[in-house]
Amino acid sequence: MQTKTGTAEFANEPFTDYKIAENKQAMEEALEQVRQELGRNYPVVVDGEKITLETTFNSINPARKAEVVGTFSDADGDAENLVERAMNAATTAFERWRFVPAAERAEYLFRAAGIIRERKHYFSAWMVFEVGKTWAEADGDTAEAIDFLEFYGREMLRWDEEQPVTPSPLPEKNNFEYVPLGVGAIIPPWNFPLAIMAGMTMSAVVTGNTTLLKPSPDAPTIAYKFMEVLEEVGLPKGVVNFLPGSGIRVGELMVAHPKTRFISFTGSKVVGLHIYEEAAKTREGQRWMKRVVAEMGGKDAIVVADDANLDEAAQGVVSAAFGFQGQKCSACSRLIVDEKVHDELLQKVADLTSKLKLDVPDNADTSLTAVINQKSFDKARSSIETGVAEGGEVVVGGETDDSNGYYVSPTVIKNVKPKATIEQEEIFAPVLAVIKARDYDHALEIANGTDYGLTGAVYSESKERLARARREFHVGNLYLNRKCTGALVGVHPFGGFNMSGTDSKAGGREYLLQFMQGKSIAEKV
Asked: Which structural domains are found in the chain, ordered by start?
C-alpha cells in the first residue's frame, strides 16, 4: 500500500505467514541481526539531544533473564531536571508544531509506517527478545503499529476538513475547527511495546501536540528503535522527548507538571486511578483541567452457552487465554460455561492446552513463553496457589520455573466460584479460571460481575441469546462466536467500560478528538 497522503484508503497491514520459507528465513535473519545488537547503551533524548547519564538500568530478556537487551540512561536519577528540560523543549516546540499543516504532520506518520513496513521483521525480532513475544504475536504487534500510523494520519486529514455547521440566520460566516491541546505525557505499556506506544505517541503528535514519552522499563529498547524512526523521517526536535526510567519518578513528575495538558496512559488499574487522581489536582501556574486518556485492563470472560459449537469455542478460549502468555488486556481469564456442556468443553480446552509448547520465543514453533518479569511471575504463582486454596482444581498446567526465565505453564483451573479471588483480580498471566453457570442468565450475570468491562465473547447458535449479549454484556468490545482478542485498527475500535478505563476507543474514528479541542469562529459579513 502506498503511504503518500491521500493516495490510498486505509487497509489493515497483512500478517506474515511464517509457513512460507522466504518469510521464515527473513525472520531468522532479523533475529540474528538483533542478537548482534543486544546489550548496547541508549540515552535520554530531550529536544533532539542524546543525553548519557551515569545512572543506568538494564532491559532484560524475560525468557533468558541473564541476557541484557539494552542498557539505558536512567532518567529517574535526575528526574526533576530532565522532566523540566523536556517540558520546556516540548512547550517551545508546540508553538511551532501546532501551526504545521495537518497534511504535513500526517506525512510524518505515513513515512514512519513505510520504514517500519520495510523492516517489519527487525522490529518483530526486538519484541521477541525484549518482551517475550512469539513470532506471530510480534508480527501482529508490528502490523498494528503500522495500522495506527496509517489510520491516525488519515483520520487527521478527515478532521482537518471543513466541519459542518448549521447555516446561521445572521449575516455572518461560521466555521468550526479543531486545535491541539499542548504538551502531553505519554505513558505506554510493555505488552504492546511498539503498537500501543507508537499509537499513543503519534495520535498526540499528528493532532498538533508535543510529547514527553516515558516507555515502560520492561520495553525501552523497542521505544528507542521507534525514536530512531522518528529521527529518520525528520520529525522536528522537541516534538517527542524520550525519558526512560527504571521506576515511577519521571512519570509522577510528568503527570503533576502544571504545563502538562493531557496524560495518555495504558497500564494497570492501580496506576491508572492514581494518575486520574493526581491529574485532577490543580498546581500553581496551571491554566486548564488536564485530560486523562486511560486504558486499564480487564478481567475478560468468554461465555459458552449450551447450544454452542464446542470445538470452535474451545479453540477460541485457548487462543484468547494463552496467546502472549495471557498478557493482553483483552485476554480471556474467565471461562463461564453452562453446566450442561461444562465437562465436555473443559475436556476440549484441557486437551488443546496440553498441546501448547512452552519454550524460548525465538524458536519458530513456540506457542507461549516467559511472562514479563519477576513480579508477574510471583503474581501468577500466588494466583494459582490462591485458586486452589479457595476450592479450585488445576486441570492442566500449574508448574512454574524462574531459574532461567519467568516461565509459567498454561494453567486451567476448574471449580472456581463467582467472586473468588482469581475470578475477580487481573492476573496478566496464562491462568484461566473456569466457572460453571446454571444457565445462560446466570452466565451473563457472572460475566458482568467484576469491576472491569473491556472485552468479552459469547458462543451460542441462538440469535436471541446473541441479541441479549449485545444488550446486556457490558463491555467495550464484544465478540460473538469468536475469541475476545485480536482487535484490528479501524475494524474493532478498542476501549473498555467501568474500571477498564475511559473507553478511549483506540483505532476508532473519534480517538483523535481526545487530543484536540473545538474552536467556533463567527465573522460578520
From this structure: 21-58+68-296+504-524 (3.40.605.10), 300-489 (3.40.309.10)
Contact, 413 vs 420, CB < 8 A? no
Cell of 283: 498546581
Could you give the CA distance from residue 3 to residue 19 in angstroms, rounded to a whole number? 28
Query: In which order are the strands placed within the sheet that holds 332-338?
Result: 393-396, 411-414, 431-437, 332-338, 300-304, 455-459, 477-480
Burial of 500 from C-beta contacts in 10 A (0-12 / 13-18 / 19+) = buried
The string of pLDDT tens digits covering residues 131-144 is 999 999 999 999 99
For residue 287, give the DSSP letter: -
pTM above 0.90, yes or no: yes
pLDDT (0 to 100) of residue 495: 97
> For residues 514 and 172, what is the distance between their CA atoms, to the nearest angstrom?
29
Catalytic residue among 107, 137, 150, 329: 329
Question: What is the C-alpha to C-alpha distance for residues 269 and 297, in angstroms, rounded to an integer?
Answer: 7
pLDDT digits (tens, 9 = 90+) for 1-39: 334 444 589 999 999 999 999 999 999 999 999 999 999
Catalytic residue list contains 295: yes
**Catalytic residue of the set 107, 295, 423, 426:** 295
Residue 332 is a catalytic residue = no
